[in-house]
Amino acid sequence: MNAPEYKINGFFAAAVSAGIKKNNGLDLGLIACKEATTAAGVFTRNKVRAAPVVLTERHISGGQARAVVANAGCANACTGAPGMEDALETADLFADSLNAPREEILVASTGVIGARLDMEKIRAAVPGLVRSLSEEGLPGFARAIMTTDSFPKLSSFEGRLQERPFKIVGIAKGAGMIMPDMATLLGFVLTDITISPSALKKVLSQTTDETFNRITVDGDTSTNDTLIAMASGTAGNREPAGPDLEEFRRGLFHVMDELAVMMVRDGEGASLVVHVKVRGAASADDAHRAARTVANSNLVKTAFCGRDANWGRILAALGRSDIRMQEDRVDISIDDILIVKGGLSRGADAEKAAEAVMREKDALDLVIDLHQGDHKDRVVTCDLTKEYIDINASYRT
Amino acid sequence: MNAPEYKINGFFAAAVSAGIKKNNGLDLGLIACKEATTAAGVFTRNKVRAAPVVLTERHISGGQARAVVANAGCANACTGAPGMEDALETADLFADSLNAPREEILVASTGVIGARLDMEKIRAAVPGLVRSLSEEGLPGFARAIMTTDSFPKLSSFEGRLQERPFKIVGIAKGAGMIMPDMATLLGFVLTDITISPSALKKVLSQTTDETFNRITVDGDTSTNDTLIAMASGTAGNREPAGPDLEEFRRGLFHVMDELAVMMVRDGEGASLVVHVKVRGAASADDAHRAARTVANSNLVKTAFCGRDANWGRILAALGRSDIRMQEDRVDISIDDILIVKGGLSRGADAEKAAEAVMREKDALDLVIDLHQGDHKDRVVTCDLTKEYIDINASYRT
Question: Which of A338-342, B22-26, B218-222, B232-236 has the lowest mean pLDDT?
């Protein structure tokens, strides 16, 4: 990992092995600024919300944060009042150590649901973690938030705003319980620009909808989804608006889209990334619903696992997705190979060619044209494999 | 299989191996009456509808049928106008052979989507099939409609109506693409009572909603779901109403519920049947939605595969199901072992006891009490296993 790529002005990070994960890996990470800085967040829409989600949403409501602490190995979800006490104590511990008000500390947790955080281990880890904060710490932080992820997920972008360089670095973890509406994902996006909390929140929400909310691994939504953006304001720009804000949005999209696709690529057991692209829908809602239904179909996902161009299952999923459609207008392609025209197979040769592409590549486009209108959308998914079952049948053992 | 149990007055059946399935098994079945009899049907709500579904819905609209012919191995779905020609020719072939109008012949197909029926094989099979019609033919018919099913599914009920005995025999196939709103299932329910087409249709629809529409294997809905009821009128009763109609409904529920649970038990790769029972919901819709969301969650289903009492995933599924709920009111039991009280774990001992039950039994109740109101519902599901992936990754090969 190219460390300079993931350095960003105004942010310091560190990670330690606190002993929360069973495997002694890094499991507690901290990102901190020298003083309170602009912050915004997006959180799970699940009605069951982990204690750190509730606390962090409250703390970030003022648009300011000094630091974010995240752990893997324990989600601190479904833990009731004691779980909230643990989240509060975690914030207090770092507030004391960083000499900041409790409200400026954000907390995030991911891992097993229903288990309590081992606060003794957290308490013991705080001094070392704060002491080792450094500008080179972000790749370690990315490792500390991994659960069943097989690789750390970082992305960066460099652009220019008002003649000055600016940067964005994003970090995320994904792997399971991944589906539109924010999943078991923790995401942290850092930038050095100056931007108001309200503008940051707006751009973050919009970009989340276009990226993190357009991926699915298993259709399950988690209790802990948390996405935090922080802006250190060291780039020296004036408050961006118009084309400037658009340039920042472009950079944020780049970073978040890259992280989102990484999450699918690392989806539990996934061997193939499929970009489900729906065109020609009668409405934006139809386009989204069609793409999401196909992307979540276990039968479509197992067909991709078997590298089987089983378009009948795709048509069947479209048919139950409650969209306006006519079977005899639907075209389906795998990359640029048209396998269905007007709802009918283009023959065994086209299917064989598509299956050859499926075997050769580790990411491809499934393009569906409904020929009903001019709306389009996409959802990124992966195949459903036996490894997914292995991982999830034994997750807590 | 106890053949007398599945004999019913007024119906004759037969099955042959026409060569549509690759394995030379029985794949074409016929149920016929001596003359046209009362009939009603329920069909897939998928917008992609196989040719036999379209044709049979049209033919049964008059409330009369003489015979139903069903094949496995080819769904005749997504086959366009030529597929409709094939369905029509199939009806014509049997109409000629049975000396009945085409409109009295119902057709049903299940198997691979997108492939044409081999009409030469159907034509060749008709005379032998009609010749071998017998009162003992229903168990063979049940075998002929199997695809990935591992056992034939029959159920029977005997009751009394107006002091006279009556009988119901049901036959179904299931296995994959199983989810509320009728799935890849073909179902045939035969009774010897006299009943009007409209009363039969009403009782059939209501009972379908309580049974076949309350099961799920993989959340996918098929293009071919067809449920046909026929009443031969040989039992000698008067048109049932009030308590008489209720007695028939009770028998129909018994048969269809037994078939529905058999379909889940034989769900692709399933090793455990789970009756998801939701109580205390604020509305009937909430109860249904909660049960269905939990029953379709891949993470809940893989946890059952691993015999892991992972209640956090159950709470997380409830939380995304868009129902009225408060986390701290939810109770969860496995059979009669309470594992979650007021949203919190009752401890490792309770979970271990529940896991022992999961290992010992092949069917159990997952009881969720929301404590929000007095509505309840249930959906029957199964675990998600590696065998499901094996079956569906290689279905067409």
Answer: B218-222
Q: How far is CA A186 from CA A8, A70, A174, B21, B69, in A?
A: 19, 9, 7, 49, 55
Q: Is the torsion defined by CA of A367, A370, A375, A380 positive or negative?
A: negative
Disruptive mutation site among B179, B217, B344, B392 for chain A (greatest number of A CBs within 10 Å): B392
B178: closest chain A residue by CA = A299
Q: How far apart are CA A286 and CA A303, in angstroms?
A: 24
CA distance A297 to B148: 19
Two tokens, residue A33 = 């600024």
B186-191 and B226-231 beta bridge pairing: parallel
Tally Cβ neighbours within 10 Å of residue A39: 27
User: pTM score, two decimals?
Assistant: 0.82
**Backbone φ and ψ of A228, nearest 5°:** -120, 135
Burial class (CB in 10 A: 0-12, 13-18, 19+), A102: middle
Given A38, A56, A184, A381, which residue is catalytic?
A184
Q: Are B248 and B368 in contact (CB under 8 A)?
A: no
3-state secondary structure of B227: strand
What are the chain B neighbours of A219 within 8 Å (beta carbons)? 219, 296-298
A46 and B327 within 8 Å at the Cβ level: the answer is no
Closest CB to B318 among A48, A306, A317? A48
**Residue A159 or residue B216, greater confidence:** A159
Our CA-based measurement puts residue A273 at a distance from the nearest CA of chain B, in whole angstroms, of 16
Q: Mean pLDDT in chain A? A: 90
Active site residues of B: 184
Whose tokens are 């196909």? That residue is: A294
CA distance A269 to A387: 4
B76, B313, B331: which to substitute to probe chain A, counting the most A Cβ within 10 Å?
A: B313
